[in-house]
Write a structure and sequence with these properties.
There is one protein chain. It is built from 8 helices and 7 strands; from the N terminus they run ββαβαβαααβββααα. It is α/β, with parallel strands linked by helices. It has helices spanning 31-40, 51-58, 76-80, 90-94, 107-118, 166-173, 185-190, 195-209, and strands at 3-8, 22-28, 45-48, 64-67, 122-127, 139-141, 144-148. The chain has one domain (3-70, 106-212): Rossmann fold (3-Layer(aba) Sandwich), CATH 3.40.50.150. A 7-stranded mixed sheet has the order 3-2-1-4-5-7-6, with helices on both faces.
Length: 222
């Protein structure tokens, strides 16, 4: 049975790659990345817009909402690579590394609170395992933090492949994007949720929406 899905901060569609029986509206702010998503998923409705605002205006139109807000300000690397007035940053700067300290982007928690209290369908918000204790307790699934209003059974992966170069990253995530220009291809692939994790969470959400469709013994769709 097909369900209506809102896929926010869609990127090139890592989480969406293995989905079936879905009617997807994908929202991506970067038009070049949105074009790649549309090339891979021509059947989806792709909107170039601010996902945070789109959620506020359209949340009631969908049965399942997936949100993956930008993760860089929450990631451990944000702390590791941070330039500090209390340490010698000369070597880091010489190597072209280091970023100024920055506030964590709070859209992540705004959306969790909003969905929890105002949205009646199934939802999940995905992000990295951060460098600080999360303000709202998540589930830790396959090296991700996931907040959701339905049960998600455990799922393991060996590595997210964050240090892979382009060719290896393409093979791991299942997207060939060499031909596209104007984007940081390796970063775009790092931002992809692993497709099998995306499928696992979608099936768990369907179990929540339509429990009568699942075989209680095999946990598969009848």
């Amino acid at each position: 049975m097909s369900i209506k899905v809102l896929n926010l901060y869609a990127g090139i569609g890592g989480n969406r790659k293995l989905w079936q029986d879905v009617e997807v509206t994908a929202v991506e702010l970067n038009p070049q990345i949105a074009k790649i998503y549309q090339d891979f998923f021509p059947q989806d409705k792709v909107i170039v817009a601010d996902a945070h605002q789109y959620l506020l205006e359209h949340y009631g139109e969908f049965e399942f909402i997936w949100s993956s807000p930008p993760c860089q300000t929450h990631a451990k690397m944000n702390l590791i690579n941070c330039l500090s007035p209390y340490k010698d940053n000369a070597a880091q700067i010489k190597q072209g590394g280091g970023i100024p300290p920055r506030y964590p982007e709070m859209h992540l928690y705004q959306e969790i609170i909003f969905l929890k209290h105002f949205y009646k369908g199934s939802w999940c918000v995905e992000n990295v395992i951060g460098y600080y204790d999360p303000l709202i307790r998540p589930c830790e699934i396959a090296k991700h933090y996931v907040w959701a209003n339905f049960h998600i059974s455990p799922y393991q992966i060996k590595s997210r492949g964050h240090h892979n170069r382009l060719q290896a990253a393409q093979e791991k995530k299942g997207f060939k994007i060499e031909e596209y220009g104007g984007i940081d291809k390796e970063q775009v692939l790092r931002n992809c949720v692993e497709p099998y994790l995306g499928l696992h969470i979608l099936l768990e959400s369907k179990r929540n929406i339509y429990p009568e469709l699942f075989n209680p013994l095999t946990q598969e769709i009848k």
